[in-house]
Please model this.
Amino acid sequence: MSGGYGEGGTTVTGEADTDGKRHGAQHAGTHTGADGGGQWSGEWVAQRLGVRLETSGDGPGGLRDLLGLALRRNPRRAHLLVSRVLGKHVPQLPAVVHGTGVGLGERVRDLLGEDAGRAVVLGYAETATALGHSVADGLGAPCLHSTRRPVPGVTPVGGFEEEHSHATSHLLLPEDPELLAGNGPLVLVDDEFSTGTTVLNTLTALHRSFPRERYVIVALTDLRGEADRVRLEKFAADLGARIDVVALVTGRVRLPGDVLERGAALVEAHDTPPPAPAPGPYEVHRVDLGWPLGLPDGGRHGFTPAHRARLEAALPAMAARIAAGLPDGARRVLVLGCEELMYAPLRLAGALAGATAAEVRFSTTTRSPVLAVDEPGYAIRTRLVFPAHDDPADGPGQRYAYNVAGGGFDAVVAVVDSAADTPALHAPDGLLAHLAAHTGRVLLAVVPSHRPLPRPLRGPEFSSYDAEDVGWLLQDLSDVTLEAPTEEREEAIQSGGAHYAESLPVEYQPSEEYQRLFHQALDASAARIARAVGAVTDTLLAERGHGIVLASLARAGTPVGVLMRRWARHVHGLDLPHYALSIVRGRGIDTNALRWLAAHHDPSDVVFVDGWTGKGAITRELAEALRPFPGFDPGIAVLADPGGCVRTYGTREDFLIPSACLNSTVSGLISRTVLRADLVGPGDFHGAKFYRELAASDVSRHFLDTVQARFDEVRPRVAEDVRALLAADRAPTWAGWKAVERISEEYGIGDVNLVKPGVGETTRVLLRRVPWRVLARRGAGADLDHIRLLAQQRGVPVEETDDLPYSCVGLIHPRYTRGATGADGRAVR
Model:
């Protein structure tokens, strides 16, 4: 788009609404540092430094209504404009702080019109993080804020400099690199728009990587001179973009020529060391917020409208937990955020104001050193000085909290993220000790630090499935040697020397005869599988709604999850998200995968999918693993439930599901999942391998396509099945578990984990473990042809019986060593 600031660009200004609801200027006064009994909180600096604030326009609101003045220890700028509606240096009502930003966001929405739906908001750290969020709230847009805290493993997509700031370097660390890549308007939010240098630095860096046609600059105050306006106009023309400016108040700050020298002299004359906290113990009351799993703590890595909805739904309960920790009769409460962490504490403060009779104020700590002068006409009356407690990239240093001491707060709620909940926070000279010296009670609420997780792996880079079929919440360990001989693995597992998930069996290479059996079984059972796929999918849609998210348990559940997704699309036109994640018996579920799901979807919509049930061990494992994550439903949906372990299934018959006959070559060429401490770190997904070299033997797509080809044929019978299932008592009977316990006792095994019931589990025993014998239900027929062939190839006896709830049961060799013999007396090979 040609043109620029002077060719279609506009400056939109406005004053605070008279009722104070949108912008809050009517309620901007605070107990300390703001009005001082009616005196302007910039008078002290204005008289001594010669600073004058001039408001442009005829509106009722002016710069003096929004700003006070203070002195800063900074060689680049002597004065500090102290906002009374920002919630940084001056404790303010949270409704004022949030409402100010929301009102500006609404103005931007009106300005952008139809383009508002494509906008992205970028706030500046540290001061404007909550303001940027609040503008995004009013606009209804996703939000990102710059950060001065590098995050290990997260590569910046950009950065810029803020020359006048105490800490100049800004990083951009979006979790989704595409967040800034769209062509919709980019809305840049800062507390003040003074010379425009920071904005020009930002736009120069961003436009180089993410060019777009329109930008909007939002600030509480627009303080540019004529030369700065001309410079922005020319910059926009050179960029070939339109740049609009939206500000609450427009004016100028007039400074004397020797302002830096005069300011430095005033600081030296009036700066006195703040008192240290009183020695001795102090008490801090921790509050468990119950922060929603996967919800980002703020916009450092991006914050979407979906995140906003989850936060707002959780705020009342979190505020109630904080309110329960307040002292009886509390009249004034401060919620204190931590540097860049402004938005979450702000929203908690707003919710707390509705959950208690106390007056609630909000402010945050800061990196900026500002002179404190206890005079009515000065904006920063008191300061607390304490060591940094979040391991900052620029090393140790001092941090500050202003206008907290002397504020008459009956309680202070310190809200930090978990990265800042360090020994330095709790030290005798730390922030909490300082707060305890100035209030009756200190509460500490810790928000989990959000660390971006990798994006799901997708085919064809990982797996032979189509990219849309499944996103793998796994890390690729294809280049790591993990395979071990079956006998070596079995001995290590049974001796307690290793867990089965720490290595992989050598992939079974089927003989031509076995491959023929697979294809025969698939042709014979495709319609049966399609019917079960339809039944379980439509039962879920009827009971859980059309917004479900499929999370298959890799890898046996993944082909079933793909088929369920294809059924929903083919029959109902639904595009269900589908991911695969790892769960390991004895070790639990991949909690990082849960975090990823919770960050991108409502946990209540997630449905866990597996291929079949055996004795129900994974069903129980999942229920236990999800106990700390109550937002997720621990129920599993399976194709076949012969063990009677779940209530959502396609059938309870134990029949051959051909995807159980093979390993990776029917599961997208993906290995079983791996969990080993030297390969999977605290921030990693569980691992798996992609066996690209087996592509010539891959039948994954053939399996899916063969079953899908029978969808239309089975639809009438699926409708009948679903009606019957919805009307039936589907409560788990756990009949399979009882049978396994009986078999373990009868055969002297003594370990139910060595008894693997059902066609699928028996196949796994024969392919991956050291089998001892197979129990087969008499008359099971063709469903067990491949079982009999595998048993013959491995020298394992098949024993027929009449009292099995399954078609067959595989028994792993008990107390296995490499010198052990099989049931027939022959050495196990």
Summary: The chain has 21 helices and 34 strands. The longest strand covers residues 242-254.
